[in-house]
Amino acid sequence: MLTGGPLDVVTGDYLAELTMLILGRDRLKNPDLGYAKTFLRQLEEGLGLAHDRGVRIVANAGGLNPAGLADAVRALAAKAGVPVSVAHVEGDDRAPGEDGALTANAYLGGAGITACLRAGADVVVTGRVTDAALVSGPAAWWFDWAPDDHDRLAGAVVAGHVLECGTQATGGNYAFFTAHDVRRPGFPLAEISADGSSVITKHPGTGGAVTAGTVTAQLLYETQGVRYLGPDVTARLDTVRLTDEGADRVRITGVQGEPPPPTLKVGVTRIGGWRNEVVFVLTGLDIEAKAALVRAQLAEALEGVATADWTLSRTDHEDAATQETASALLRLVVRDPSPDRVGRALTSTAIELALGSYPGFHVTAPPGPAQPYGVFTSTLTPADSVPHTAVLPDGTRLPLPAARSLSPTPPLPETVGSAPSPPPRGSAPDPAGGVFSAPPAFEERGPGRSPGLSASPAFEARGLGRSPGSGDEPPAGPTTCAPLGTLAGARSGDKGGDANVGVWVESDEAWEWLHATLTTELFRHLLPETRPHAVHRHPLPNLRALNFTITGILGEGVASGHRFDPQAKALGEWLRARHLDIPTRLLRPAQGPVPAPEGTGP
Prior knowledge:
It contains 13 helices and 25 strands. 22% of the residues lie in helices and 23% in strands. It is globular, with a radius of gyration of 26 Å. The longest helix has 17 residues, at 37-53. The strands form 6 sheets. It has a 6-stranded mixed β-sheet, sandwiched between helices. Strands 4, 13, 14, 15, 16 and 17 form a 6-stranded antiparallel β-sheet that branches. Strands 6-7-11-10 form a 4-stranded antiparallel β-sheet, covered by helices on one side. It has 602 residues and is an alpha+beta fold. The chain starts with 8 loop residues before the first strand and ends in a 19-residue tail after the last strand.
């Protein structure tokens, strides 16, 4: 990033829910740690270069100990002979108020970063701030925005959300990855303007691609609802407009901002207990019977264990040409407050079945000890109760007031009726708002059949084209039973125990069909594992997208290892692989992988 082209500020997002747990365990071993040590290793190479080029560095790598990281950066700079000023942001630590918490941190906004940069800091490190604050904080410094410049701040927050996961905005993890050469995608840049609009791009000559599709995918990532709540501003995702401006340039305009809520989110991690697992390999015939035998043989050993989850993954193929493709995997995951009940004695019992169980018995790993697992939860705290503090380069401690907020705004009701086509990309905002969203109860009808859907066998197979109660009808004409992903892209992720799946299409006609067809009822039908959970649908017409949130499907969060895919990263790809009737005229022709550039290796 420092050598590829012009840059004013380079940002780095080092913190995820799982990372906070890891840093908490580090701090238990050494109270002087608790920050991302990889940041220091990167600075060894880049600090002098950044100083020579006048590039500011802003990162949340401080984790649980931003003051400690700031001191470490100063020591590194002195050793390297680089004259940089270092500041940090603190006040997010809420662990003393959370009983039994390993970590508890409020999500701060960008005001502390802004203050540090205004005081002349070359490097700013923070603890837990929102990911987007790493961009909105520097933007507010650069343009001298006021705290109530809500539209401008919201635009920068949206740009920050696009940048926060790096190459996910330049073709990484992209549904239509075969359309681009994404073997080594470059990192994204945001060229932010004084009005809060921005252009997402990347350095010339870097790999990957920046398109309306790649930016849309990241906009939908790990969001819940049309109001993107933040400590400084609430950004309205339903007002975002994208415009392609040539190769690898996508402009973001029209973002409307509202005052932030009066509370801050507090992420809390705890040691939830102890877990262990065994994966049995079942090969050839009678897979179900072999699995039943193992479960029966271990039933007595599992008595008294708090939870024991069995999953049979049918990775086997009939008449397979290789042994591996003839095999299925039976996974046992156990959890308990006591390490003894799920320790090596239990896993050894499983291995000791080897000579007296199903034919071909073997496992993927030897017996292992129990491992601690973490639990992530979130709470709310009044924003004015958090001592958001900028510690300036000269050591001055500057308390920052909470942003002026309004009471929480209820979700916007989804408009009933046919779905409008979104405005042309880059058009002026609709004065009436053009707003679509769904309150939690709007399409949440429980796992059973909803009003407006007949009980005919068509519901169980295909042809689910009516949005309940809306009168919407999918476009008429011939249909083809095909995977949803032949038409739609998707991106999914986690927020604690919840998951989200964003789905988008690329034309107005396809959006009309998607909005009318992909109801919460159909979503549940296509992804049966979501049926026990509350599912909420939020339309975003400007992006031709639907965003679904599934409450509680990830249990107690990624660190608990509740699911095969504990962060729901591939939930969207599962949805895209499900078959349903799609108007034939909407289907895109098959695309093969983009050939490698001449002269490059595999």
